[in-house]
Amino acid sequence: MWKVFIRRHSYQSKVAPNREGARLIIRRLQKTVLRILRDPDFRMSKSSFQQKPAEPEPQVDGAQFNVHRNGKPDSNCRTCNDFKSWSKQQRLISNTQAAKEKHIAASEKLTVNAAGVAAPREDCPLDKVRLGISTWGLLHTMAAFYSDNPTDTEKRDMRTFFEVLSRLYPCEYCAKDFRSDIEVNPVNVNSQKDLAMWLCNFHNRVNDKLGKPLFDCSKVNERWRDGWLDGSCD
Ligand SMILES: Cc1cc2nc3c(=O)[nH]c(=O)nc-3n(C[C@H](O)[C@H](O)[C@H](O)COP(=O)(O)OP(=O)(O)OC[C@H]3O[C@@H](n4cnc5c(N)ncnc54)[C@H](O)[C@@H]3O)c2cc1C
């Protein structure tokens, strides 16, 4: 093979295989060896010795991304791109997707939590339902930790608190019903148990008005102070 190569090059370069010719042949030989190493399909034909135009490098972005070096589609993009380009591309895809989901969620008053699940937004003004849930939480917890033997001051403060709340509760018609209810069923501030039961019954009257199921008031301290007897809150 090398004899053919040397003969052909001596002929092509039209120089005798003297010192100058030998240098030229060695240079071409080096080039040819490099090309054989780079391209296993390389054939030592006459045309092979002519300079080929450089092949464009495959691109890693956009539509080119799924295309292998040989032009065939590749199902596994990690094999057709170096890891750096592949991971950059993956980050771009997932960032774009996350931004889209956040935008849609915001317009629907939803938020996407760490697990990627859409949940109601936490940073908007309270509506009647959320205000109610939060207020009941505060009221029942205050009753849960009220004294078993309250002082006169504690009794007065607690009564005053409910009276003021029934005037200031920021849902006008809720507050109106609240005031009417207190007039008929005065707040019982004699002990923790009495206050918790009074509040539970008041809450049930609101539940009843709204067509909601009534709560079993014998379990009010489990719900708001001690946790359920089955230990599920421990
Ligand atoms: C003083 C007040 C007056 C309101 N008035 C109105 C009104 O007129 N119209 C209106 O639309 N909304 C009103 N609301 C809001 C309404 O009561 C609810 O808070 C809201 O509808 C949300 O209901 P929910 O079913 O999610 O649970 P909520 O009724 O808010 O209850 C929260 C939690 O308390 C527990 N619970 C339920 N019932 C009792 C009970 N009897 N005792 C102890 N714990 C209980 C349950 O575990 C429940 O998950 C009022 C709220 C308050 C605080």
Automatic annotation (TrEMBL):
GO biological process: mitochondrial disulfide relay system; tissue regeneration
Catalytic activity: 2 R'C(R)SH + O2 = R'C(R)S-S(R)CR' + H2O2
Domain ERV/ALR sulfhydryl oxidase span(s) in chain numbering: 124-224
Alphabetical UniProt keywords: Disulfide bond, FAD, Flavoprotein, Mitochondrion, Oxidoreductase
Entries under PROSITE patterns matching the protein: ERV_ALR (PS51324)
Region annotation Disordered: where it falls in the sequence: 45-64
EC number(s) given by UniProt: 1.8.3.2
Location of the protein in the cell: Mitochondrion intermembrane space
Cofactor(s) it depends on: FAD
Gene Ontology CC terms: mitochondrial intermembrane space
One Pfam match: Evr1_Alr
Protein name: Sulfhydryl oxidase
